[in-house]
Amino acid sequence: MAGFHTLLPRPVLARPEPGHCVVDSAAEATDPARVVIDPAALPRPEAYRLSVTPHGIEAVAADAAGALHATGTIRQLLGPDAFRAADIHRGRWTVPCGVIEDHPRFAWRGVLLDVARHFLPKAGVLRFLDLMAAHKLNVLHLHLTDDQGWRVDVPAFPRLTEVGATRAGSWAGRREEGDPTHDGRPHGGFYTGDDLREIVAHARARHITVVPEIDVPGHSQAAIAAYPELGVTKEPVPVWHAWGVSEHVLDPTESTVDFYRAVLDHVVGIFDSPVVCLGGDEVAKRQWRESRAVKQRAVDLGLGSVEALHGWFIGTLARHLAGHGRRALAWEDILDVGDPPPGAIVASWRGESAGVLAARTGHDVVMCPEQHVYLDHRQSDHPDEPVPVGFLNTLERVYAYDPVPADLPAHARRRVLGAQAALWSEHLDSPRRLDYAAFPRLAAFAEVVWSPRHGRDTAEFVDRLATHHLPRLDALGVEYRPLSGPLPWQARPGVPGHIRA
Q: Phi, psi at residue 21, to the nearest 5°?
């Protein structure tokens, strides 16, 4: 029990230091009731201080979230066995002696989970929240609607799930790889209101905010399939089986807006998040341009073009959310059609330039550039990498990312609320595929949004990850991508010697 180390600050993936103190049990070490909450002692939100001596563990936290982080760090220091569902540890538990003072760099440490393209059953979402909490991540952006599926039950509009939650099949592979037809396997699923309330409560207990997304006015083919009157042509369409940008867009009539006002009324009754995402990305406008009624609608609203209906649609629903005391989050595409609605948060996804522009002009920003933090993108150039979509986004590249762009002026930096990784699920059709895409890159991202930029060393991180953190993921049952590359059953289908994941 010799040795006392002052560790200031600590990364999110704690590594034991020399010198250990005996703890009678894991439960004793991680009991939240033993954490004293004292905002005066630690004025930063979510901060905590641990003191481990031969005489025991003392923990002080700025708030309840800090108390959770303190117990989470103790759990890390106890070793991999502390992450198992049952206590199988033999012998006495030991914790490194030392003092840890820690707090997050950013208030928004998020992950987008796309359950619209491929539905993830409720148990999978609850498990994912547990994994987020283990990494001190605190925002789950739940992408609930898209062209390929509508996943939230709205009793006033039952066809949204009766029709919109099921599609005839899924696009097999990618356009450049051959036949863009579906695989013939029906896919579907949705969450009841009680399912979502349970998810929100599970998240709340872990100090995670669940931000729901209802995507408008594009990425709406599943809703139009359920209620064709929402579309411009009013003609029946199927729930889409392909990936990409559908040409079917919402008709910007007052009745359509009223429909979505009612949907949002239902959503805010379930989710306690102060933020609701309205999407606003990749809005195909051909149908608008070809519709006399839509062009007249733009004239009647005093807009200069049908393209301006994009911003009008988002702004109208953002004002409705404001009436509920909620802020709108929207993808950076809304900057293409004018100023964001008052109070709206801009998600910068195509790169960082939109985030820089938004922050410079006084808007809050969440950085989520696909080049750096889209975790569905390929992890290596190896031919056995499963469905090698998008940018090459290695573990090291994720860890090197800084959410505050170097060219952002000092006065605008406070507008960067944080960053958000993304798990788009076109090719993530099972929890195993989700694990493979997320980890260990999500562990690297968690440290990026928690720890200071200075002092980060990639080689040191990879060593700490391999030595200390991957065994924790093993104990949790996470089927992550090994650092050496995919296992045979994780590899790309069709590669000689490998089998389909």
A: -115, 140
Please give the Cα distance from 248 to 269 (Å, whole number): 29
- Put residue 91 in one of left, alpha, beta given phi > 0 → left and psi -120 to 50 → alpha: left
Give the integer Cα–Cα distance in Å for 118 and 138. 23
Distance CA 227, CA 252 (A): 14
Delineate the domains of the chain, giving CATH numbers in brackets: 6-102 (3.30.379.10), 108-452 (3.20.20.80)
Tens of pLDDT, residues 186-205: 999 999 999 999 999 999 99
SS3 324: coil
Q: What percent helix, strand, coil does the chain show, rounded to 5?
A: 35, 20, 45
Closest CA to 61 of 77, 45, 78: 45
Per DSSP, the residues of 450-470 read: HS-STT--HHHHHHHIIIIIH
8 A C-beta contact, residue 152 and residue 196: yes
Q: How many beta carbons lie within 10 A of that of residue 74, not counting itself?
A: 26
Record the tokens describing residue 140, joined without a space: 């789950």
- Residues annotated catalytic, as ranges: 282
E-strand spans in 54-106? Answer: 56-61, 93-96, 98-102
In contact, 248 and 287? CB cutoff 8 Å? yes
Of the listed ranges 11-20, 146-155, 307-316, the least confidently predicted one is 11-20
> Does the predicted TM-score (pTM) go above 0.85?
yes
CA dist 364 and 494 (Å) reads 45
Region of 288 on the Ramachandran plot (φ > 0 left; ψ -120 to 50 alpha; else beta): alpha
